[in-house]
Amino acid sequence: LAIEKRGLPLPAYNITAGTSIPLEEVAAAAKSAVPELDASFGQGPHPFDNRIGRLDITAAMRDLGYRPRTALVDGIRSYAEWLKERRPG
Fold it and tell me: What pLDDT, in 10s, does the model give residues 38-76?
């Protein structure tokens, strides 16, 4: 969307789902998509969780017409399938 627009008021935009997800949930989503994956972050909050808070996508919505369309688990699963299809051998 940004490539197609000219004269944007900002040099960069947050393109996320507009929510904050703990890394433990990201690991669980990745494991759901790729069961053989060994991904975990241990007990308690991870130091990177909420380090900067939720990324605000208001500017991307306003200036680019951006709207999140893919849930985290679906996006990870889709990406994992895409990678598997392109794996050599």
Answer: 877 666 665 655 555 567 899 999 999 999 998 888 888
Instruction: Specify the pTM.
Output: 0.61
Neighbours of 10 (CB within 10 A): 12
Give Cβ neighbours of residue 53 (< 8 Å, ≥ 6 apart). 20
Measure the CA–CA gap between 10 and 28, rounded to whole angstroms.
Answer: 34
Check if the beta carbon of residue 19 is closer than 8 Å to that of residue 75: no
Query: What are the angstrom distances between the C-alpha of 11 and each of 5, 8, 29, 55, 81?
Result: 12, 7, 31, 16, 32
CB atoms within 10 A of CB 65: 9
